[in-house]
Amino acid sequence: MMLTALNDFARERGLTDDPLYEVKPVDFFVRISAKGKFVALESTAGEDGRGKPMPVPRLPQRSVNIAAGFFADNPKYVLAYEKEEPKTKAGGVEKRLARLEAFLKSVREVAAETKDPEARAVEAFLANEAERRKVLAERDAEEWTGSEMLVFVVGDATTPVHQNPWVRACWARRSGEQRAQGRKALCLVTGREGVVAVTHPKLKNIPEAQSSGAALVSFNAPAFSSHGLEQGDNAPISQEAALGYVLALNDMLRRTEQRRFRQGIQLADGSVMVFWTRASASEESLLLSWADPTEADLQRFAESPLRGLEPGKLDDRAFYAVTLAGNAGRVAVRDWFESRVGEVKQNIRRYFEDLRIGNAPAGPIPVYRLLKAVEAPSGRGLSPDVATRMFGAALRGQPFPRQLLAASLDRLRLPPSDERFEREQLRLRVALIKATLLRLPRSGTAPLEVTVSLDKSNDSQPYVLGRLFAVLERLQGAALKDLNATIRDRYFGAASRNPVTVFPRLIQLSVHHASKAGENGRWLERVKGEVMALLPSESPFPPVLDLKDQGLFAVGYYHQREAFFTKREATATPAEAEASST
Fold first, then answer.
1. Helix (H, G, I), strand (E, B), or coil: what is residue 333?
2. Which of 404, 552, 369 is nearest to 468 (CA)?
3. Nearest Cα residue to 74 out of 134, 111, 27
4. Could you count the other beta carbons within 10 Å of the beta carbon of residue 145?
5. What is the DSSP annotation of 132-161?
6. Confidence at residue 69, expressed as pLDDT on a 0 to 100 scale
7. Who's near 581: CB < 8 A, 6+ residues apart?
8. C-alpha to C-alpha distance for 348 and 152, rounded to whole angstroms
9. Dihedral over alpha carbons 507, 359, 293, 203 (to 10 degrees)
10. pTM here?
11. For the chain, what percentages of helix, strand and coil (3-state, to nearest 5) are there?
């Protein structure tokens, strides 16, 4: 189903309209005379420094093998270029010349078959080492990378040789002959008979995969074969369908100026989720701007927070999402699901409502910020599995993995790693805790209620203890001002797990802090009394809090802490105003 949906996407968006050509950035025109003499190396780079995108004959698959393009390729094939001296010089020279010979072979065949003057000029140029060296001399040796895309232009022409009608006709015939070769079978994707793709094109820009690309469907070792079948025959997919699903994924995975993936969201370090619909590109762009907003998106949403998530006429169209992860030369599918556009819009809206906490406005939060907030000081973030399940649950409207709650609490227990962003990081961590608590599965009990901001009527013991801890922290700050380490740095973890071991001692310390804080201390003592009055008279400090209660503790702490930062009404006393800003 997944490959079928991808192949349909490629067909509907016109990605397979011309299967013989692909659009690539062409870096240079190699202009030559009708006799094959070098004239100029013309850069096509625009203001962004990138080459001009144009259709070129589809390049063959290659890794360590030698496979040349058709009248368009990189300097290694066109100019026999080698960036570094090979360790084994003789072998390196042989491979360098083998690449050139492979490229020249098809040019010779076309020139002999068509007698086309432009094809003959390219043949003469390639056969002349002195002319090829002139091209390399046009740039400093350090500027060449070996990955530049080169095409040929003859004389005063403005059209590259590979777009010459005679050359195009040869390419179409050669490609048709190659596609006709091979075993025919019923395609698992289209359900129609076709020539089976022995190997499939590679996906590009997959995290943790090879930069040259990696295969999603691959049988490249005897252990992966069965019943005497080899490579693609093990899962018969036609050449057209194999090209279709790869073109679809590569289109969504390609980089843009604003995003690493045109239509994808990176989850943790090693996986990316891409999604598409049977609706329209504008609907997909809207969903992406909500699911993973850029800074420009956030500015727009600040003016109209829920714009675009209201019901629309395309809400009944299909929605698809797949999460991919790279492992060297192979690609693994971590998650796949399908839904409807309207359901996903509702789930995204609920997702951000669940994340909303404190005085922050309702609106999207970039996924990378959430994942960064629970990253350990060593730089290790959530495992790809947890990150995948978390965002998949957000789009499905399902419970978050409990590991997310544990990871957020673990990070909350550690001292701040960067004081400049501590308030924002704290908000994101507690937001994840709140959202996870709201989605915890329950049976036979009322749903857990976790408010956006401070709820003074909430007498849940873990929540009240979190509030009390925030008051005690504020008392310490009001009394001692500049501190190298607060009670949060030293005691938050123990207080949230085993309150009875920590709170009695902190209560005693708070009396001392209140006496040193003057009028601020007297006001905070009143707040402390109000909070403690909500605790049960017997066993106010339980010996153990489970994971859910630890989450409620963190939410209560954050709510009370943020309440201190909130601007007070005009009737507030100077002491209260000063204490709230401490």
1. strand
2. 552
3. 27
4. 11
5. HHHHHHTS-TTT--S---EEEEETT-SS-G
6. 95
7. 565
8. 50
9. 20
10. 0.83
11. 50, 15, 40
Size of the chain in residues: 582
Helix or strand (DSSP H, E) at 499: helix 499-516
| Span 538-560, pLDDT tens digits | 899 999 999 999 999 999 999 99
Q: What are phi and psi of 220, to 5 degrees?
A: -115, 20
The residues pairing with 215 across neighbouring beta strands, listed in sequence order, are 330
Q: Which amino acid is at 29?
A: F
**Quick one: average pLDDT of 240-252?**
95
Residue type at 7 in one-letter notation: N
In the chain, domain spans: 21-177, 182-253, 264-438, 461-580
Backbone angles phi, psi at 24, to 5 degrees: -135, 155
Quick: pLDDT tens for 195-224: 998 889 999 999 988 888 899 988 876 666
Both tokens assigned to 3? 């490959």
- Is the confidence at residue 369, as pLDDT, over 90? no
- 3-class DSSP assignment, residue 513: helix
534-563 CB burial, b ≥16 within 10 A, e <16 = bbeeeebbeeebeebbbbbbbbbbbbbbbb
Contact between 44 and 51 under an 8 Å Cβ cutoff? The reply is: yes
On the CB side of 381, CA atoms within 13 Å amount to 19
